[in-house]
Amino acid sequence: MNLKLKYGLPFIDVVLIHKGRSLSFDNFLVDTGSASTIIAAEIAVELGLGPEPLDVIRKIRGVGGTEYVYEKYIDGIQLGLKKLTQFKI
Question: Which of 16, 30, 41, 55 has a beta carbon 3.0–4.6 Å from 70's, enabling a disulfide?
Fold first, then answer.
């Protein structure tokens, strides 16, 4: 895994994998103060992870305020040569 500093923040290259689809990102922010991994709704939908009635809803808070999000598991997340399966986002 190769960390890159931009604007004083750490970024990495990431591949998100789910149901035969994969999306690559070369500027994925590593938020060391976050309790979980969060992706934009547009990316979730592109991976086939749209909201469903039985999804767990969470309330998150940050500098920008409060927002409601839903939890999903993706088949995998790859960071360099390391790959994690059944990863919660």
Answer: 55
Cβ(74)–Cβ(16) below 8 Å: yes
Residues 6+ apart with CB under 8 A from 13: 2, 24, 25, 26, 28, 79, 80
- At residue 79, what are phi and psi to the nearest 5 degrees? -125, 100
Beta bridge partners of 87: 74
Domain count, the chain: 1
Is the per-residue pLDDT at 1 higher than 80? no
Structural domain containing residue 13: 4-88
Query: pLDDT for 24-48, tens place per residue?
Result: 998 888 887 788 888 888 888 888 8
